[in-house]
Amino acid sequence: MKSTINNTVEFVKEKLEGAEAGHDWYHIERVWKLSKKIAEAENCNHDVVELSALLHDIADPKFHNGDETLALKISREFLESQQVSEDIIEQVLFVIKNISFKNRGEVPSELPVELKIVQDADRIDAIGAIGIGRTFNFGGFKNNLMYDPEVPPSLNMSKEEYKKSNGTTINHFYEKLLLLKDLMNTEKGRELAQQRHDFMLTFLDQFYKEWNVD
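User: That's the sequence. What structure does it adopt?
Assistant: Structure tokens below.
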């Protein structure tokens, strides 16, 4: 499986060349490393964890007109080309299909540990200093305002509302990023998320002071 993992790394690097900086190869690499770190403390299939982490954003729907099937199609075709067993392919596709924050209301109540691990890793990369950088990068990519004191965060959005949202970057902290700490599945995930969550609170406090010239 080592050679398959290496081939997957090269495939993903090539596929995501030129991608938006918050969802590029470096994001994948961080999630891959975080997944392996979390997996050390869990009883899991490490091959499924690594392949899922590497392929989880191979075709992010928000960059493909909302198509949630494309990533599954690309991943299946690639894994079949590597002679990966059908059992592992199905497990990887399950992770890819159910990992997203916006889909959290649609996932089964009992989740496989491999999904829990990769989901935690993906969410950890969405918070802390890296998360702040990614959030502002994506906000700029969409030409969203950084902040508007007159526009409150939109809490409890439906999946469709979330997908169509063009709110401010600061509002995104309240609509998603600050919620992630309490959505962690694993003990290691909770530990890593707490540190990054606290950093975001410090950042927001400083942001408001500077915005208000306090």
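Residues 73 and 170 are 34 Å apart (CA to CA).
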